[in-house]
Specification:
Number of strands: 12
CATH architecture: Alpha-Beta Complex
Low-confidence stretches: none
Mean pLDDT: 91
Distance between the termini: 60 Å
Number of domains: 1
Strand content: 25-35%
Helix content: 10-25%
Structural class: alpha+beta
Strand order of the largest sheet: 3-6-7-8-9-10
CATH superfamily: tt1808, chain A
Length: about 180
């Protein structure tokens, strides 16, 4: 008896999968995630509003949210969907087709950790290797944000009064309490 090898998944195949789940592709392997919970959505909305208002006020680019799929690698496909992403004006100019999955990575990717989701360290490394300048991992259980950037050690904020600044968005700052609504 011989084993049948499954060819890697491609982003084109995602459109045929059933709705109600969240999907990503990790180097050709399909990743299926349960729909996000209320707290995840609440925090995601707060981060989106904080970043969006700053980016719009300063004409820096676009903030997208709602699990927009982004190609981080092709053949085999790695398609990840950050909860919130910031695209600078420069990166927006590189987007040829805005109707599909972007092949240009965002400048900033934000992941709100779900208890059902595995460790995010692999996804963080994939973002950074693809050219994302900073990745925030937001942990609702610990009420913390950890910032990852190429060539820098991770930095974690865990006190509601801590001021979170983001060099990718010069001049942006907010307190950790604002992120969590405290």
């Amino acid at each position: 008896m011989s084993a049948v090898a499954r060819r890697p998944w491609t982003a084109d195949e995602l459109v045929r999968l059933p709705e109600g789940w969240r999907y990503e592709i990790d180097e050709g392997e399909l990743v299926i995630m349960a729909p996000a919970g209320f707290e995840h959505g609440r925090i995601l909305s707060r981060i989106d509003a904080l970043l969006r208002s700053f980016v719009q006020a300063h004409g820096l680019g676009e903030v997208v949210s709602g699990d927009v799929g982004v190609f981080l690698r092709r053949r085999p496909d790695t398609l990840r969907a950050p909860d919130v992403a910031f695209y600078s004006r420069e990166r927006l100019q590189q987007l040829r087709d805005r109707t599909g999955f972007p092949t240009v990575p965002p400048d900033l990717a934000v992941e709100v950790h779900e208890p059902t989701e595995p460790d995010l360290s692999r996804k963080v490394q994939q973002y950074l290797q693809a050219g994302v300048q900073a990745v925030w991992v937001v942990d609702p259980a610990d009420r913390s944000v950890t910032r990852h950037a190429p060539g820098q050690p991770p930095r974690t904020w865990s006190d509601p009064h801590d001021v979170l600044e983001e060099p990718v968005l010069p001049g942006f700052s907010c307190t950790l309490g604002e992120v969590f609504g405290e």
